[in-house]
């Protein structure tokens, strides 16, 4: 049985993995970004739940999936400042956390959701 990790547990998981991808200066810059962490967590949880529901339809090009991709991208941009290099590093950290058998069950996101959202984002990009 898995249990949802506390924010402190999630932070500890990501702190261990982040050092592989972010310099200390980059980590400090991200930590100084101003955003409401509780609101972002709530938004993330909602987007993940929505993605899981949309996955059942298996259509990452659907209007609903494209809308999800837009909102997901906006949330990522809020955290990364819209910097593609930072977003790529954040993806790498998530992938590292999801690959860790001790950390993965505690995470709100799993590889299947990550893959579905990635496909929806690619379809969104194609549609522009």
What does this structure look like?
The protein has 128 residues and is an all-alpha fold. It has one domain (13-126). It contains six helices and no strands. Helix 1 crosses helix 5 and helix 3 packs antiparallel against helix 4. The mean pLDDT is 88.
Write a concise keyword list for the protein shown above:
mainly alpha, 128 residues, globular
Which SSEs are present, and which pair or pack?
Layout: H1 7-18, H2 24-32, H3 37-55, H4 63-80, H5 84-99, H6 111-126
What does the radius of gyration come to?
Answer: 15 Å
Q: What is the overall shape?
A: globular
Beta-strand content estimate: under 5%
**Tally of individual domains:** 1
The arrangement of helices and strands along the chain is: HHHHHH
**Mean pLDDT figure:** 88
As residue ranges, the low-confidence spans are none
Helical percentage: over 70%
For the sheet with most strands, the description reads:
none
Helix/strand-derived category reads mainly alpha
Number of helices: 6
Secondary structure: number of strands: 0
Tell me the distance between the termini.
42 Å
